Amino acid sequence: MAVSVCEENPKWRVVTDVLTEIEEANGADSSTGRVLIVVNSTHTCNQLRHYLLRGSAAVLTKLLRKLDQPKQVIYRSPSPSV
Questions:
Q1: pLDDT value for 68
Q2: What would the pLDDT profile of 22-66 be if each residue is shown by its tens digit?
Q3: Residue spans of beta strands (DSSP E) within 1-82
Q4: How far apart are CA 35 and CA 31, in angstroms?
Q5: In whole angstroms, what separates CA 36 from the centre of its chain?
Q6: Would the pLDDT of 78 be above 90?
Q7: Are the C-beta atoms of 60 and 8 separated by less than 8 Å?
Q8: C-alpha separations of 7 from 39, 59, 61, 72, 76 in Å
Q9: How far apart are CA 62 and CA 64, in angstroms?
Q10: What is the dihedral sign for C-alpha 47, 50, 55, 57?
Q11: Measuring CA to CA, which residue among 46, 67, 69, 54 is closest to residue 8?
Q12: Do residues 2 and 68 lie in contact, with contact meaning Cβ atoms separated by under 8 Å?
């Protein structure tokens, strides 16, 4: 059986980092907890929502299944930017 190795989209990590910074800046004040993210397409919106709710491994697995690839998947996070 072939093994697929997937890497997280680096943009997903950036979105997560920015949202974490916003959350930390707001502190205990949850009333300012709304963030607007603008994307170019419905597809991107759905993919980003899925990523934020379930994580990158779930998104990558779903994408591979759509491609009708083998079921064994190895997930690898990208190396942190230096």
A1: 64
A2: 888 877 666 666 889 999 999 889 989 999 999 888 888 888 777
A3: 4-7, 73-76
A4: 11
A5: 16
A6: no
A7: yes
A8: 21, 11, 11, 14, 5
A9: 5
A10: negative
A11: 54
A12: no
Q: What is the pTM of this model?
A: 0.65
Matching residue, tokens 């079921």: 71
- Residue 61 near residue 73, CB atoms below 8 Å: yes
Residues belonging to the chain = 82
Chain centroid to CA 55 = 5
Orientation angle between helical segments 42-54 and 56-66, nearest 10 degrees: 130
Using pLDDT thresholds of 50, 70 and 90, give the confidence band for residue 82.
Answer: very low
pLDDT at 3: 63
